[in-house]
Specification:
This protein has helices at about 10, 15-20, 20-30, 40-50, 55-70, 85-95, 105-115, and strands at about 1-5, 35-40, 75, 100, 120-125, 125-130. With about 140 residues, it is α/β, with parallel strands linked by helices. It has a 6-stranded mixed β-sheet, sandwiched between helices.
């Protein structure tokens, strides 16, 4: 059975920052087939950060993230949800598909946990860890 892993922007920057293969690690941790999903607003944020980086290092990290985004299925977000924050859109989508949210954002992890959404996160700058249960 395939599970959808919904990626937050900060999660796609992990490989460029820490050298962790997030795709291989996710498969190791979840032990099943995975479809990696990127919401359109997340892709737009990455593209913006590539075109206008604050530093050269940030530009490099986001260029890597943009290249990795090619391995994900991009999902368009419904018009009404454009009034919501990207974090809320990520959470809503993960809930709707009974997927896993991949993020390192502390506040978003707490929101996900309160709604019963499992969270994939970086631990020790070396490997991924799952917080919650995948059904």
């Amino acid at each position: 059975m395939t599970i959808q892993v919904v990626l937050d922007t900060n999660f796609l920057v992990v490989p460029g920052e820490f050298g962790v293969d997030i795709f291989q690690e996710a498969e190791r941790v979840l032990e099943r087939r995975i479809e990696f999903v990127l919401l359109e607003p997340v892709l737009r944020e990455i593209e913006l950060r590539v075109s206008r980086p604050r530093t050269r290092i940030e530009g490099r990290r986001f260029s890597i993230a943009l290249k990795l985004a090619e391995r994900c299925r991009v999902v368009k977000v419904d018009r009404p949800s454009t009034n919501k924050t990207v974090d809320d859109q990520l959470l809503d989508y993960a809930v709707s598909v009974r997927g896993v949210l991949a993020t390192n954002d502390r506040e978003l992890k707490q929101k996900a946990k309160s709604q019963g959404v499992p969270v994939l996160m970086l631990r020790g700058k070396k490997q991924l860890q799952l917080d919650g249960t995948v059904v």
